[in-house]
Amino acid sequence: MLHIKCPHCGMRSQNEFSYGGDATVKRPELGKEISDQDWDNFVYNRKSLRGKHLELWQHLSGCRQWIKVERDTATHEIFRTLKANEDNS
Amino acid sequence: MSLITALANVHSIGQFGDHEGKNDNNLLKISEIKNLLIVQIAQYKNSTVSFENINIDGLRLKDKPLNVSNNNDTRILWNGPKNWLLVSTKNDLLKNISQNFKETDFAVTDLSHSRAIIQIEGQDSKEVLKKGCPFDFNNLEKNNSINSIYNGIAITVDMLEDNSNKVRLFALRSFGESLYHSITDASLEFGYKSI
Question: Residue A82 contacts by C-beta under 8 Å, 6 or more apart in sequence?
């Protein structure tokens, strides 16, 4: 079982979280003209990377906040967690 | 008007499980807590007003994980960032709370009848919780509270006493019976007294 350190609550079991997908995807600017391909890329197309990956998780059974988790998709090692509004650079 | 409590249909008084030959004081005690005022207080994300100075029954809100501000009647549990659960035996406190929190900055919701509350007391109460909940209960101290899950049911755990390991579990009322069965089933091996 994975343990994820929620930046609000502390170390918790993965059972309390739900996975929310790639955290690096940015929504196209509101009102901006975008192509069908760009919209497709935003809504559907994802890379399936091996290695470090920045993901969104929600602490659904805890504080109910969305957080960012940097995780290795091959080893499941978690390097760091951030609040959703924190810069990941 | 008479109120039907959340566990009225399942909670029965008596001794159950492996209780024979054991001292009454060593048995787990399981009870339903009734008639509490339960209020959720949440500050809106775009609100910037300070909440530190707001006084409810002599208590102040603290945005600190695990924290429970408390006195003899009232407990304010940290539920998440800028989100608290107030539990009180003073049922008339709601008016005071509504007056203290501006509608434009806070959402105040009365949840009194939408929760089932189970109280477990006894040396093995943490062992019962460990059987269904992934949280490390060895680190839960007096006046700490957490949100977690017990056999898939979302619960709030409030640690009232650490000498007698007295804990209160809050679950959605509709999950109350299911949680009660889970808790009592997990308690059978220790023996419990239902009061």
Answer: A7, A67, A68, A69, A70, A88
Domains and CATH numbers, chain A: 1-25+50-89 (3.30.2270.10)
Q: Which of A8, A13, A64 sits opposite B65 (nearest CB)?
A: A8
Residues in A touching B148 (Cβ below 8 Å): 12, 16, 61-62
Classify burial at B151, counting beta carbons within 10 Å of its beta carbon; exposed 0-12, middle 13-18, buried 19 or more: middle
Q: Taking the alpha carbons of B96, B98, B100, B106 in that order, is the dihedral positive or negative?
A: positive
Report the distance separating Cα A57 and Cα A69, nearest Å: 7
The residues, ordered by sequence, that sit 6+ positions from A1 with a Cβ below 8 Å of its Cβ are A13, A14, A15, B134
**Token pair listed for B58:** 């002599």
Model's pTM, two decimal places?
Answer: 0.91
What would the pLDDT profile of A6-31 be if each residue is shown by its tens digit?
999 999 999 999 999 999 998 999 88
Integer Cα distance of B41 and B4 in angstroms: 25
Are β-strands B74-80 and B68-70 bridged in parallel, bridged antiparallel, or unpaired? antiparallel
User: How far apart, in whole angstroms, are the C-alpha atoms of residue A66 and residue A83?
Assistant: 7
Show Cβ contacts of residue A11 under 8 Å, excluding neighbours closer than 6 positions. A3, A4, A5, B136
Across the A:B interface, residue pairs with CB atoms under 8 Å apart total: 40
Mean pLDDT of B126-141: 94
B107 vs A: CB within 8 A: no
- pLDDT 10s digits, A32-83: 899 999 999 999 999 888 999 999 999 999 999 999 999 999 999 999 999 9
Considering only the beta carbons, identify the residue of A13, A15, A63 that sits closest to B80.
A63
Q: Do B80 and A1 touch (CB under 8 A)?
A: no
